[in-house]
Amino acid sequence: MSERGDSAEPLSHGVETDEDIILEQAETGLDEDDRLKPEFLSAVLDAVEEGDSETARDLVSPLHPADIADLLELTPSDQRADVAAALGDIVGAEVLSELNDYVRDDLIGALAPEQVAEFAAELDTDDAVAIIEDMEEADQQAVLEAMEPEDRAAIESALSYPEESAGRLMQRDLVAVPEHMTVGQVIDYLRDDDDLTRDFWEIYVVDAAHRPIGYCQLSWVLTCPRGIAMADLMKREQTLIPVDMDQEEVALRFQKYALISAAVVDTSGRLVGMITVDDVVHIISEEAGEDILRLSGAGEGDINEPVMDSYRARVRWLLTNLVTALVASTIIGIFEGTIQKMVALATLMPIVAGVGGNAGSQTMAVTVRALATNQITGSNARRTIVREIRVALLNGCTVALVLGLGVSLVFQNMALGGVIASAMVTNIVTAGLAGAAVPLAFDRLNLDPAVASSIFVTMITDSMGFLAFLGLATAAGLTG
Questions:
Q1: In the chain, at which end, N or C, are there fewer CB atoms within 10 A of the end residue's CB?
Q2: Phi, psi of 290 (to 5 degrees)
Q3: Is the pLDDT of residue 4 over 70?
């Protein structure tokens, strides 16, 4: 809990100069981009290896908890426990909350349940849940039993909600007051109650059943006369977050309505917690990275993920890709005779398939992002597909014109130039259709469109590219 200053005079804040920043970075081992310097990491590891814990602690103690977390993540896994032990209480609750999930699990596995419980008690509910939720059930129960009853009840309540829901994301510490209180009474309440959280921006106004009926920004309370009633000051229009709402939808609401914090309500409409923008920034980054990695079939894509977990996540998509690649190779086999008559076809085939694949990836990326941000709904899905086909047609005609003229001049064969131009237009338009339709189809089936869209879009563009090019070449009777 943060402490308030006792001085009645306002604190003066000096302006930090460039020289001050450079000096601070030199002292903490950070470069100008706030990254840990390799030589700083080496110095810490050398001190730990030599058994000089005091030097290691002196080096690390000026760092911000997030930078200490970075240091532990950069430390080789076989040395991480030794470094954490050498740093002692410097690796506290705030550092644990900043750590990568896999690194945190490694460190927590080496701690006694009582130590984990002590760390969890120091954190907001949402951060404490993030530490405890991925533990084995037996370890989780041991930690909960070591906690104070009040803290334990809050954690158990949060764990009862679905993963990646608002209930897991919210924190329980908030400020709520009845509407009959005046501004002066609220200010006195905030000053006199030592158990209140000091980390808040908005005050929620609730009715007798503890349902939120409005909110006040802290600045409104501090700048209004003491006699004003909260009912007259508060803003009644507010964005309430259902406790079971998916965290991705929560992030979209914060982004859409420019929220700093939002009240979380249960199924009966009672105020049970709040979500703040700092947690949402983390969710936005996490969800965006998740979608990018799923598009490539790379699983979680975490460099700290165990090798076997990464293997299992990636190999299934590579095997699926192998099967879809057989479709394209089968089409090539059908036109083997045509290729033997004109070897230039084998040289030009990858161009048609490759450019079509890139066009499909562009459209697919735009569509997946639009689905993730709720820009595409049932009302505009068809319009989106038509738009992407129009863009693809323009792109196809442009690329086909350049490629067709180039092939005609290089191979001195106008017919070949016309065939590859026609195939290119066909494949890029098909790519535009597939890049939009495949993710939309996955979404309609309630499947994540980011998971496997790329494999099917690539199969369609490769197959159509080969089929259009070799089919038109065969129909045109091209020979060497």
A1: C
A2: -60, -45
A3: no
